[in-house]
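Worked problem 6 (solution included).
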Amino acid sequence: MQQKNVQQKNFLHQLLIGAIAILVIAYMVLQLKLSVGDLLTVQTVELATYEETYEATGYIIRNEKIISSTTTGEISYLVRDNQKVSSNTNLLAIYSNPSDAELQNQVNVLKNKIAVLEKSASSMSNNIVAIDDSINSLMLQSIRKIESNSITGALFGADDLLITMNRKAALKGTIDFKTLKQTLEHEVTYLENSMSGQKTVVRADRAGYFYSTVDGYESVFLPSALDKMSLENYETLVSSKPNLIASNTAVGKIVYDSKWYIICKINKKVTGELRAGRTYDFEYLHTNNLRIPMTFERSISRTDSDDVIAIFHSQEMPDDFSFKREQPLKIVMKSYEGLEVPTGAIRRRNGESGVYIVKGNIVLFRKVEILYERRGSFICKLPDDKDKAAVSKTDLSLYDMIIIGGKNIYDGKVLK
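Solution. The predicted structure is:
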């Protein structure tokens, strides 16, 4: 009997300790809640972009003509690829003596240096701060080209960078344009007098853009082929063989017009989204995903086929663009840029979609206009498309602190 009373006392003792423990924990939770105040989960609003693209294979069409020569010997090109030339410009020289061609290549390098010096000495600014800004900008452009694996693009910008750096050196008195130019001109004269063999100069028959390489399709992929384009003619065109006879005697080609075309076969549903006269970004895989805006001209379809021939054009001719005849590419059909908002953060208030944000210690409602929905989030319209950092008092803005978790949230609430 005595043992039973001891067990009861122990049980009551443990029960009392458990009850006290629960009360202590409850008190601690209450104090923690009172000290923390309103518990919210917030997220900074960031900029987001999304693109709908369509992959295709395009073919370049240009108004071009092969330049031929039957003269044998070593070629030295006097102009660079994609350089605009006038009628009767010396394009290249063919030397009977290979060493003369090498000397001419050295002359070309020296003449380019002279041209850089002449540009450096002209239209000089006395504002060294502006010159430093230009140098930094040009260096950044070159770095970006190199980062995107466009070494050719970086090299094309080297002359502009050198010209600007020369102007800075001139302001500091560390360079003498006149003396340097005279030295280079003497070297040119010496090298030219050292040439002993025969040479044949090839000139441009018309103004245009010069290229040293040909593919044999210059007489096949012509703008006139677009006049009678059909699905059948397209298949015939892209399966045609190059003109090897013309290629064998070719020393280059002239593109007579800056306007060039891309022709490609795409799905009829995709073509339905294209609008004549509208510009679409094309991403070219052969040139490190370089983007060039192309204008949609027209499409050719047939009722019994889901395939459509689409014709685009452009007049942009970047120095680092590869004008290979066949081009794997992506067409940017739609592009969205705006504020990224988690789907769970969207609320409805007075018939309007929006979100709650925290500004200081106050909860505020901000309206949103949804542009695009993707998995887990929306892309919402910026309050000002021209100024991404613009802050609105009514609409959601970049870098607002958006509430994505919390209870009893309402407009105007003061947080504790």
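Discussion: Residues 1-7, 23-36 have pLDDT under 50 and may be disordered.
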